[in-house]
């Protein structure tokens, strides 16, 4: 049903690769997110929580550099461990905190020199503008549904994104004590579609702002388009909601591999949450960004 639509949407949907390092370790944690382009001028949309990671990357690293600089003053101090604890409190650094994030836009534009980010004030939505680039590396652009009221429960739609970070072109540089991209390794990660039906509308203040889907959005698909079998975009994958089903089983005896065991289970239904196309189009109009839509008729 979605073969041709996926091929069409894949032309302007792109991954964002992230690598992160946590305090006190050298392990690199890879991750992905998604964006899709709305015109041929380097404008794309993604989730606000994705854009925040991009905006906060330098601030996070600068905070760690200041911490490291202050700590070096106590390298020969017998009370270094005590001073480290004080500085960790001052700079709000703990083992569970990320101290370095690096991101890479894959096959979006060639050699961009500037990036503008607009965050929606209330919805999980952001506009990214690539500036001063040589040429675009994507083809075509999204076409949004003209009549947003056509998004009704029971309609089958599909999402496309990059939930599985299979790229390997990164490393930990011991000399620099930093993580970095490298020229060797796999630079791509596969896209992954997932379909479902519209279950409910999500609203705020008597306004429909989101679309709930019967299947979950996968990690890494955040920022990917929600579209029909013609490739028309109805929204953008944002989050996964966990609905408690109430079918709890507590300390129930079951037989597993011939042995009796007692187990407990608290099942949830995982459903997708998408930003409605109407919200996306309204924000694009507010920022005077050109976009395309189908005829309301």
Summed up:
The protein has 297 residues and is α+β, with helices and mostly antiparallel strands. The protein contains four helices and 16 strands.
What does this structure look like?
With 297 residues, this protein is of the alpha+beta class. It has helices at 3-9, 48-72, 80-90, 277-286; strands spanning 13-22, 28-37, 43-46, 98-105, 114-119, 126-131, 156-161, 170-173, 178-181, 192-204, 207-213, 225-227, 233-244, 249-256, 259-265, 268-276. The longest helix has 25 residues, at 48-72. The radius of gyration is 23 Å and the shape is globular.
Instruction: Name the beta content range.
Output: 35-45%
Count every helix, treating DSSP H or I runs of 4 or more residues as helices: 4
Structural shape = globular
User: Largest beta sheet: what is the strand line-up?
Assistant: 4-1-2-3-6-5
Query: Any idea what the radius of gyration is?
Result: 23 Å
Sheet/helix structural class: alpha+beta
Order of helices and strands: HEEEHHEEEEEEEEEEEEEH
Low-confidence runs of at least 5 consecutive residues: none
Give helix % range: 10-25%
N-C termini distance:
23 Å
Number of strands: 16
> What is the mean pLDDT?
94
* Biggest sheet statistics: 6 strands, antiparallel
């Amino acid at each position: 049903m979605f073969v041709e639509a996926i091929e069409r949407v894949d032309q302007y949907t792109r991954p964002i690769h992230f690598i992160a390092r946590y305090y006190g370790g050298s392990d690199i944690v890879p991750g992905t997110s998604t964006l899709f382009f709305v015109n041929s001028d380097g404008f794309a949309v993604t989730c606000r929580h994705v854009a925040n990671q991009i905006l906060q990357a330098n601030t996070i690293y600068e905070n760690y550099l200041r911490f490291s600089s202050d700590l070096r003053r106590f390298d020969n101090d017998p009370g270094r461990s005590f001073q480290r604890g004080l500085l960790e409190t001052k700079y709000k650094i703990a083992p569970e905190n990320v101290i370095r994030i690096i991101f890479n836009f894959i096959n979006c534009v060639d050699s961009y020199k500037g990036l503008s980010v607009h965050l929606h004030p209330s919805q999980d939505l952001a506009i990214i503008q690539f500036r001063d680039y040589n040429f675009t590396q994507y083809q075509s652009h999204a076409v949004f549904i003209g009549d947003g009221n056509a998004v009704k429960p029971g309609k089958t739609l599909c999402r496309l994104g990059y939930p599985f970070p299979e790229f390997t072109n990164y490393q930990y540089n011991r000399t620099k004590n930093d993580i970095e991209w490298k020229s060797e390794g796999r630079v791509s990660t596969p896209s992954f579609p997932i379909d479902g039906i519209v279950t409910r509308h999500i609203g705020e203040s008597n306004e429909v702002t989101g679309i709930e889907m019967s299947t979950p959005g996968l990690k890494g698909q955040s920022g990917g388009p929600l579209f029909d079998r013609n490739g028309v975009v109805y929204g953008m994958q944002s989050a996964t909601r966990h609905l408690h089903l109430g079918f709890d089983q507590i300390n129930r005896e079951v037989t597993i591999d011939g042995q009796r065991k007692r187990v407990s289970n608290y099942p949830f239904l995982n459903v997708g949450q998408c930003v409605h196309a109407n919200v996306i189009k309204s924000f694009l109009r507010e920022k005077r960004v050109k976009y395309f839509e189908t005829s309301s008729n």
